[in-house]
Amino acid sequence: MGAIREAFDFSDFPLVERIGFGIFCLFLLAFPWLGMDSFGMAVMIQFLLFSLFGMGWNTIGGYGGQVELGKAQYVGIGAYTVAVLMVRWDIPYWFSMPLGVLIALGYSFLIGYPLFRLKGHYFAIATIATSLVLQDIFINWNFVGAAKGIELPIKGNTFLYMQFTNDTYYYYFILAYFLAGVLYMNWFRKSKLGYQLRMIKIDEEAAESLGIDARWCKIKAYAIASAFVAVGGSFIAVYNLYIDPESVMHLELSIMIALMAMLGGAASLWGPIIGAAILVPLDRYLGSWLGGHKELMGVDFMIYAAIIMFIAAFEPRGIWGIVERYRGRRT
Amino acid sequence: MVLADAFIQGILMGFLFALISLGLTIIFGVMDIVNFAHGEFLMLGMYTAYCLSISLGVDPLVTLPLCGAVGALLGLVSYYGLVRYLLRGPMVAQLLGTFGLMLFLRYLAVFLWGIDYRMIKKGLLVGKSLTIGPFHLDMTKVVCALLSLVAFTVVSWIIFKTRVGKALRATSINREAASYMGIKTERMNALAWAMGGITVGIAGGLLANFYYIYPMVGLLFVMIAFATVALGGFGSIKGAFFAGILIGILETVFPIIGHLLKTSIIGPQYKMTIVYLAYFLVVVFRPRGLFGWEQ
Amino acid sequence: MAFLEVRNLTKDFGGIVANNDISFSIEEGEIVGLIGPNGAGKTTLFNCIVGYYRPDGGRVIFRGRDITGWKPFQTAREGIGRTFQLMRAAGELTAVEHVMVGAFLHQEDRVEAEREAREVLAFMGLEGVADLYLTELPLAIQKQVGLARALAIKPVLLMLDEVASGLNPTETEEMVKLLKRIHREKGITLFLIEHVMEVVMPISEKVIVLDGGVKIAEGPPEEIAHDEKVIKAYLGEKYARGL
Prior knowledge:
Radius of gyration of chain B: 19 Å
Number of domains of chain C: 2
Structural class of chain C: alpha/beta
Strand content of chain B: under 5%
Oligomer: heterotrimer
Radius of gyration of chain C: 18 Å
Strand order of the largest sheet of chain C: 6-7-8-3-9-10
CATH class of the largest domain in chain C: Alpha Beta
CATH class of chain B: Mainly Alpha
CATH topology of the largest domain in chain C: Rossmann fold
Helix content of chain B: over 70%
CATH architecture of chain B: Orthogonal Bundle
Largest sheet of chain C: 6 strands, mixed
CATH superfamily of the largest domain in chain C: P-loop containing nucleotide triphosphate hydrolases
Distance between the termini of chain B: 41 Å
């Protein structure tokens, strides 16, 4: 199918980048055999997961230009669907994950419709509000375990429930999602919707004059982002084997996701990956180093915050934006 | 009777909400930026009152001017150090920038004071109550409400009756035209941030008299402030005042209604949800709020 | 049945009546100009037809369908294209990509859309700049790309918003030739709002004049040029009396 061909077609990237990415992929594939400790493995898994989140956010936040700060609620939907279905009815991952994605899609269309009547700051604040509302509901909803959360029963090694005793399996699992995500985004940025979104971002009035229903396009992109993020959420459920509203749905998560994409360079394919590559290790290593120094608690976030402010003030297009300015070409 | 009591409590809190939101609406009115760090300014005002009253051994109310000063300082430093640069960029950058400021200040507080909850225990008004008819009112809250009213009056007077205020209003209506008239818009921006900072710093100082002080408290109140400003109309001082009171009433009366209707779905745990919902509804169905301009 | 019919159109901006009971019609294949002094209500009328504003009174009927109050993307899908006075360029899309977005209205396939876009650019003599980013192009070329973009949606009625503003005499001549070509080779009906008489008068078959929100004249260019009311609107009482 044409779409598959498009997804694998990276020809509009300069050769240097294609080779670079190819090498990176080889590195990713070989990683578990490079003798990293379990902490390093965990960091890589986290990196791949957040790249996935960031790429998803990118559809509406980057290409669409609508900064939204409520993605965490969809992580929650993805995670909780898998968790609840498993704990209550013993349903395998491969049924619950798609269901979670469907719920995420449905919910995103539901709230997307009124949400996209807003623009700019109002929109951003509203996305925060919706996420906080859902979190509040989950904290008080006994069906999903309320504030205590859900502990998934340990099932040993099983592909049916996607639980493993060896982190290497989880690694390849998330890597598969990551690569699928990259291919999808590669297709997306060249697709009709991708172009229409960018037109909307540049000049919404002009886009409308070309027959584009801007609101509907934004909702579609928002739904796609939600689906991406829900898939990631489902992974968290089977990886952590414990979820609660605080850990999968809180505001900081939404911010981190948006931040990662923007730091690396929103509206570009590599941006979210670069952003994740910087922030995730920073978060993990800094966090563990600071863990030993209780008196420095809070410094890690202060550093991210400083990075954010710096990027916002001087290079809003992120790191990849700097690269693109150099080579004069946007992809 | 419980309902009436909640009503009064709501109004009292509402005065404070209004004061908290005043700064946000001024800044937005003058330069179209939403200060996500607004809640953190409030939080730092609270900590100022706390630290000063403890270390100097004075009544927290005495620290109010200093809280205001700290707020003003925060506002000015934020403007000259960050916001000035953000204004040059796309809106995305502005959102991101003030967000970063929010995180920075919040975790600065974590670093300086840890995450423990603190409370001011000693004070002229702490623990005293005023009885009017059948209502028992917390003395601190009454005084805070009154002081908030005073602050509102002063700010309104400045904005509507002085030359500087006129310049500020001119800048918020049409920045370009104002600069042609010789108004230094840069200074107006900084002034807006200073005023925003003072009011919210004082609000923090007042709030500290009866509310828990902890680094995350900013998030809670900033959402209330957003809802208030949206309801009142972004940029409208009158709007912030009335909307603040409305939100205050909404927030306290709502759980009581649930209690009266004997349903646990409507309860205090959803206090914030109703505020968010209010924001959402206002902004979708009447974007300009009660008194704001046409969008 | 007229191609585009505007009946008793009124638009009131809370006290300022920008369009007051305006009626006229355009036949298919015509080139019609809309002129009038500043503030006459031309842009408002334009926006009411295109859908950016909803009229307070009257109707807009296009090819037999009542499109009053339709949103801009709906009128675009119905076949009404438009250009913009101000092109908002960003360094994100190249010229051909801009035009592709137009082609995507009736084209799902990217490769096809790109081919169509390049065709339109070639038609306008812009193949050379196709792969440049819009921000890299001078303003006049940007506007031409905007025109190409509007053509890419294959409109049957093209509304041109001051397409000749800011052009020097040579460029103006080129624009006139271009508009004639579009009309002739693509069979598109043209409706121009213009200030630049050197563009409107030579090519319009009919000219409508607005002043103060009201239609004051309608007819062939030669008549309009000598119409007393029109001269008075532009130049004042004295010149109208033939001074």
